[in-house]
Amino acid sequence: MTVLSADAEVDLAIYDEIEALKRREDATILAHYYQDGAIQEIADITGDSLKLARAATGVSSKTIVFCGVHFMAETAKILNPEKRVLLPDMLAGCSLADGCPAPRLARMQAELRGEGRRFQTVTYINSSAAVKALSDWIVTSGNAVEVVRDRVPSDQEILFVPDRHLGRYVEEATGRRMILWDGACVVHEVFSVTELLRTRRRLAGSITIAHPECPVNIREQADFVGGTEAMLKYVESIEIPADILVATEANMLWRLENDVPRHRYHPVPGVTCACNTCPHMARNTLEKVRDCLRTGAPEIAWRDEFDRAGGVLRRSLLK
Ligand code: SF4
Question: What CATH code is carried by the domain that includes residue 223?
Answer without folding.
Answer: 3.40.50.10800
